[in-house]
């Protein structure tokens, strides 16, 4: 039998980029660090994120179909840590002086200094164990900076 600890330890050796997913919900901005982000389709352009089913971010994504993903750069390690909990209200307050702007298609915050931004609209939600896979059509993309990426491997942020 595979234990959760063994499974986590084995998959922690897989390096992945780090993103912050943001959603505008009413007057609040919600943000969460997400390492499970990938492209799904080129035509139409689609992406997928995986979020903890019991998280606040999962609830918000169920209510608010438009959201944004900022791909973080190596210099944004502290920012990733601020959003590492399961989705926090008032994301703008947690940016800690980091500039942001509203995406024109999603109204979600896009964090300045990231490598890229992807604005999305949810098309499909798939329960998958203790997570939910959220498949979305890409509404727009922007290349924000040319810099080193922030990655996560062996439970640590690296560049």
Automatic annotation (TrEMBL):
Top-level taxon of the source organism: Bacteria
UniProt KW Oxidoreductase keyword: yes
Keywords tagged on the record: Oxidoreductase
InterPro entries hit by this protein: Flavin_Rdtase-like_dom, NADH-dep_flavin_reductase, Split_barrel_FMN-bd
Domain Flavin reductase like: 11-159
Protein name: Flavin reductase family protein
Lineage: Bacteria, Bacillati, Actinomycetota, Actinomycetes, Streptosporangiales
């Amino acid at each position: 039998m595979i234990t959760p600890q063994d499974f986590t330890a084995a998959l922690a050796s897989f390096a992945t980029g780090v993103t912050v997913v943001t959603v505008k919900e009413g007057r609040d901005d919600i943000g969460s660090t997400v390492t499970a982000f990938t492209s799904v389709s080129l035509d139409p352009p689609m992406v997928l994120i995986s979020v903890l089913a019991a998280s606040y971010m999962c609830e918000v994504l169920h209510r608010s179909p438009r959201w944004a993903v900022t791909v973080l750069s190596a210099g944004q390690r502290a920012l990733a840590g601020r959003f590492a909990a399961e989705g926090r209200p008032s994301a703008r307050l947690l940016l800690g002086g980091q500039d942001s702007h509203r995406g024109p298609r999603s109204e979600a915050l896009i964090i300045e200094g990231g490598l890229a931004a992807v604005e999305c609209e949810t098309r499909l939600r798939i329960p998958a164990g203790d997570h939910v896979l959220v498949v979305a059509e890409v509404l727009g993309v922007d290349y924000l900076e040319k810099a080193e990426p922030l990655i996560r491997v062996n439970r640590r942020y690296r560049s």
